[in-house]
Amino acid sequence: MNFSSKLIEKAVDAFATLPGIGRKTALRLVLHLLKQDKTVTEQFSTALVAMREGIRECTQCHNLADEDLCQICADTRRDRRLLCVVETIRDLMAIEDTGQYRGLYHLLGGIISPIEGIGPADLNIDSLVERVQAGDVQEVIMAISPTIEGETTVYYLAKKLQPTGVQLSSIARGVSFGGDLEYADEITLGRSIVARTPYGQ
After folding, report:
1. Which 3-state string (H, E, C) describes 133-147?
2. 102-135 confidence digits (pLDDT tens)
3. Is 65 helix (H, G, I), strand (E, B) or coil?
4. Alpha-carbon distance values, 186 to 2, 87, 151, 175 (Å)
5. pLDDT surpassing 70 at residue 49
6. How far apart are the C-alpha atoms of 125 and 111, rounded to whole Å?
7. Cα 18 to Cα 118: distance, rounded to the nearest angstrom
8. Helix (H) and strand (E) counts for the chain?
9. Residue 129 burial by CB count (10 A; 0-12/13-18/19+): exposed, middle or buried?
10. DSSP one-letter code for 113
11. Domain extents in the chain
12. pLDDT of res. 177
């Protein structure tokens, strides 16, 4: 791909680093921005810089947040007796989009995967145990992708949480084994949350 401008080439290279964006799509985005009023591009770049500099991790659930607590944890209308454990932020967003869950979340930041060198110490497990031990949580819902690594992670968490006496459940298997949670459709995922089953049954 030949460019008449080094500035355009540099912008295309930057867009092409994004997941799912090839160089042709990146060029289309760059040319689109060039056609817009200058203020549109300035607002676009300002929003990205502000996001990168201002975003932080929720001190309670590890979700992305603008303040110390994310909007979900700060919402007093949420049911604090329910705690849904998810692998990634995208899984959390997928469950929120169903509109079927009104409890709180805990973001693990991944799953146990010895092949990739990810162990329990690399995940937000200790803070999960501390939240449950605090006493408000009555049920922990394991909303982890049904893969071998996911099942291993759920088993480990169940062992860690067992002494607390909290009720453990897992999402119903409307989500196929080996599938990723974020790719499940909203209806299936919503039903899986509502029809969750006690863990181990």
Report:
1. HCCCCCEEEEECCCC
2. 999 999 999 999 999 999 999 999 999 999 999 8
3. strand
4. 42, 17, 22, 11
5. yes
6. 10
7. 24
8. 8, 7
9. middle
10. B
11. 6-54, 64-198
12. 45
CA distances from 132 to 40, 82, 127, 176 (A): 46, 10, 9, 28
CA distance 94 to 185: 9
From residue 85, how far is each of 12, 81, 106, 167 by CA, in Å?
38, 13, 5, 13
Structure tokens at 157: 């968490």
Tokens 């049954």, residue located: 201
Give phi and psi for 7, each to the nearest 5. Answer: -70, -40
Give the gyration radius of the chain's Cα atoms. 21
Closest CA to 146 of 177, 182, 192: 177
Count other Cβ atoms within 10 Å, centred on residue 2: 4
- Superfamily (CATH H level) for 6-54: RecR Domain 1 (1.10.8.420)
Residue 109 tokens read as: 């930041």
Tokens for 172? Answer: 């119903």
Element (H, E) at 99: none
Q: Which tokens hold the place of 155? A: 């088993």
The per-residue pLDDT for 178 is 46
Which CATH number does the domain 64-198 belong to among 3.40.630.30, 3.40.50.970, 3.40.50.300, 3.40.1360.10? 3.40.1360.10
pLDDT at site 147: 83
CA distance 30 to 59: 37
What is the reported pTM? 0.77
